[in-house]
Design a protein that fits this description.
Layout lengths: L2 E6 L8 H15 L5 E6 L10 H7 L11
Parallel strand pairs: 1-2
């Protein structure tokens, strides 16, 4: 038995090609008899803060940090 962590991050949800690929892969493993322990998280459903270039720069010690990044 394998532990598989699945992190889905597409805002397209069920229409996401990546999410569909993940689902097909897991279904194929199951069809082959694998009894995996799957932990799945939909990151788009969580209220996570956005890390963009501006905030990343502030974390890395950039000069002239904007008020938002402070």
């Amino acid at each position: 038995m394998k532990k598989i962590l699945v992190l889905k991050s597409s805002i397209m949800g069920n229409d996401s090609q990546t999410n569909n690929l993940i689902d097909r892969y897991l279904a194929a493993r199951k069809a082959k008899g694998h009894e995996d322990r799957i932990v799945e998280h939909d990151l788009t459903a969580l209220d996570l803060p956005v890390l963009d270039g501006e905030l990343f720069g502030a974390l890395r010690g950039a000069e002239n940090i904007s008020p938002r990044a402070k």
